[in-house]
Amino acid sequence: MSTVSVIIPAYNAANFIVETIRSVIEQTFTDWELIISDDGSTDNTEAAVKPLLNHQIRYVKHPNGGVSLARNRGAAIATGKYLAFLDADDVLTPESLKKKVQVLQEHPEIAVVFCDVAIIDEKSDKTGVELIGSDEDILKHLLLWDKTVIPGPSSILVTREAYDAVEGFDPAFSTAADQDFFFRIAGQFKCHRIPEVLTLYRKHGSNMHMNIRRMEQDHIGVYKKAVRLNLFETSSFKRHCFANLYLILAGSWWVNGNNKCRALLFLIKTVMMRPAHVTRILKKLA
Known about the structure:
Layout: E1 4-10, H1 17-25, E2 32-38, H2 45-49, E3 57-61, H3 67-76, E4 82-85, E5 91-92, H4 96-106, E6 110-120, E7 126-131, H5 138-144, E8 156-159, H6 160-165, H7 177-188, E9 190-202, H8 212-228, H9 235-255, H10 260-273, H11 278-285
Parallel strand pairs: 1-2, 1-4, 2-3, 6-9
Antiparallel strand pairs: 4-8, 5-9, 6-7, 6-8
């Protein structure tokens, strides 16, 4: 049994996964196990990781079921008190686990700790862009979707108890699975930010393709689930959050989806939910 279980969900990840694994091996905190949960890869992911396997590093392969299921399958066989979910192309800095574990051990009231993130490119060079998280009203701003709060799943370390309590990642979602998980975690548990870059997030041509239709379905589904879970404090706050969601979807359809009619539909939904957003819309269109 290890203190930390690092779970890497992998799908056709051969290009970057070795560097990801080595970033775990090079941690200054050494009481960890690493589980590579292969989500039915069809490339040479297995061959790439095989030379690195040992008593601390395990590889399991399952039929393709999506990233949420891959994470949950890894967690199901994990033995650690704390769980880290590291995407197969991201990298941990050497002190990442040590500093996160220290917070959780010294503050048992905290169930989730997360850090800031720096963006790297295909060559592992920093781009100069950083995603700075926030400790301010975490659930509120997650639901408002008005700024970066928790920079991503690779930035977190969560207690096993909290993960089990929210029943892990929801396989019904793909592009919004992280958002849904963060909503549910922040709705029940105390979260804490370490104001330091301890994770490197890689942007490259093979990142999950932007499917606007799926993005729309996923994020609306996540917000409707948040309604069922009573995560919104008031009806007016709920309308504000949905207005922000619809405005984001409008922008996505307008810029990336090349569908101006659907973008206008969501602009109308935005104004119906919160007329005050007219000013924001006019500024964006100006």
